[in-house]
């Protein structure tokens, strides 16, 4: 009967999932239809505007050419009218007859009296009269031939739009809270590209966070973020922590030339490989206060306690006011809460494979804390980190004196190392590596080598003070150096 109920539950769950996918698909179709109608109206309006501009340009050019021809015609007419007027006046006044008589007389004097030739030369320009019009009737320089332009108008078509690029998923790199996306430009993959298309000027990339490897947007998921005016076929999305607090990032890209923007490429979902978790407040000891990514120790029933009292001159009073972690009793909380001397809280995301990284910073008033990993099922309500076979941790203390130790299976290894102010925790579940890094100085504090056999969760112990964590981080590239050079370090694991 139970098996039938479970099978029925799985069928109902599958149907519900398919129904949700169908609803999302229908919403996407409706959205596309609305966008198609809006885009059609827009391009139609743009076409009318461009035709109006083309017609205006033709009218302006025609008016300009007409004006040039008219101006030349008027200039020539004016010159011809001046010549006509001059010769009409010349004939009407009889001046022409006088000039002819004067010329004949000078020729006679030249023959009879042997007058020097220079006199005739001096006077001759006065009688040079041209009988050719000053301007011609030729206007052929204004002949036009718009056959090429007519052919160009007949070839008018829609602007060449670049094809969608193709994202090269194998070349995309996820590292150090950045994603470097690489794509192949349009036409590079196929040799039959259109040689008449305009060169690619820019690329636009869009991305959004998603918890599914499907690129179909689900209601409630983030909208597309834009990166515009990319010149090269590659871009790096710089990593704000908030950019990588999801399991996947969906990415698409399109090409633009001076004419228009093309279609977006088919989106791909890239796994961020970031490990994002929060404190599981339901497991926190009753005297631990969880607020976001911070945990502080707030003891109950201790009068006059001030966890920030740390001065050496007040050491004696501090000891009397601040209870020892080995002697303070805690009230019982819920069934899953840690209790007694185990001031512990766990993370809410399990690790079952792959590599994970997060960081811890102690608050200014801290006295003692531990950080590491544990099998959730192996820790009892009163168990402390590092005391059994199912937990591994780094323990730091400023209570009475500074100390740093690596703990596992009730064994502790004292570390001769200054207390780090920023600790990076790296866990490679498959290879059994657990490393603690002094991030500020990029030095390995300690490395455990073991073989994990159950799901792990981050684990923390806080006594007197507090800690804050940074999650949603990708494995830093500097971890490669520690993994290659420090695998031979001894560990406390059997």
TrEMBL record:
Q: Where is the composition biased (Polar residues)?
A: 317-329
TM ranges: 85-104
Which UniProt keywords are present, listed alphabetically? Answer: Coiled coil, Membrane, Transmembrane, Transmembrane helix
Where does this protein have coiled-coil stretches?
A: none
What CDD domains does UniProt report for this protein, alphabetically?
FN3
Extent of Basic and acidic residues compositional bias: 303-316
InterPro entries assigned: B30.2/SPRY, B30.2/SPRY_sf, Butyrophylin_SPRY, ConA-like_dom_sf, E3_ligase_FN3/SPRY, FN3_dom, FN3_sf, Ig-like_fold
Q: Where is the Fibronectin type-III domain?
A: 161-275
Instruction: Please give the residue ranges the record annotates as the region Disordered.
Output: 295-335
The segment(s) forming the B30.2/SPRY domain are: 257-478
Write the protein's name: Fibronectin type III and SPRY domain containing 1-like
